[in-house]
From TrEMBL:
The lineage of its organism: Bacteria, Bacillati, Actinomycetota, Actinomycetes, Mycobacteriales. It comes from Rhodococcus rhodnii LMG 5362. The keyword Transferase does not apply. Residues 20-334 form the Enoyl reductase (ER) domain. This is NADPH:quinone reductase. Keywords: Oxidoreductase. It comes from the Bacteria. SUPFAM superfamilies: GroES-like, NAD(P)-binding Rossmann-fold domains. GO terms for molecular function: oxidoreductase activity, acting on the CH-CH group of donors, NAD or NADP as acceptor.
Amino acid sequence: MTENTRIVLASRPHGAPTTGDFRFETDPVPSPAEGQVLLRIRYLSLDPYMRGRMSDAPSYAEPVPVGGTMVGATVGEVIESKAAGLDVGDHVLSYSGWQQYAVEDARGVRKLDADTPLSTALGVLGMPGFTAYAGLEKIGKPRPGETLVVAAATGPVGATVGQIAKARGARAVGIAGGPRKTAALLDEFGFDAAIDHRAPDFAEQLREACPDGIDVYFENVGGAVLRAVLPLLNEFARIPVCGLVAQYNATSAPEGPDRLPGFVNQVLVKSLTVRGFIQREFVDELYPQFLAEMRAWVRDGTVRYREHVVDGLTSAPEAFIGLLEGTNFGKLVVEVGAARS
């Protein structure tokens, strides 16, 4: 335990990232000061938002500097503590990024309960789950009998969105890529309908799955899915916008009716509510409520989750590139090191 391997941003990608945009560096393992803990990172979360942080375009968060450690949520084990209330062996949620060890202030971590799998703090009981919960609770507000549509529906946000909608009494229509994922939406996650966005008649299938139109469209993809959804939106439909993964690697503006004039026309004539959000804005208000309700749903099977775990920090760059291409199935997590039993 003398060296810390970390992955830094080597260059800013133009279009899709490549492994050449990342670089491995080795430094001495840091030592904690008073009020700090030294963590051995056990799990690293890989999420689409990281593509935006690789760019220096204006956004809601500062970009990762070239040469800086890639950002990311982590679960770590305390292996040295100089902070009251945190002991060696405790596990915490932190934002330590793509590395094996990290020193964090005690105020910047959250101690994890021992009664749930550690990795869920990065998925259904973490940022993705809270994104789904907050977006529906504050913006989407699905009501009994309404129809909700969500794309990337086997991902950690999309799957949770659909299951919360079902718990609130709405119909859930999920969009995913390939028959294996659409089957899981029906058989594993309990969606009412599932559509393969790769199908040549995708737009027609979506129309047939939504005979009464769409009341809530949880937007996390954009592109062709948004173009198919727009004509089906009902008056007063609500659109929480948390991501546009189909456009993250784009090098030019999108074409078609999802360009600004056509989209704004739909907003006007259908009295749509469109609200972009970053989950952190609702943390103070909703996080305790989210944890209580989501833990209960996970325990009783109302909400199920799937994880896609890859082994070793060295796997992170290729796994992240695959995430942006939709190759993962479930919440993508890197097992940096095995947790103690």
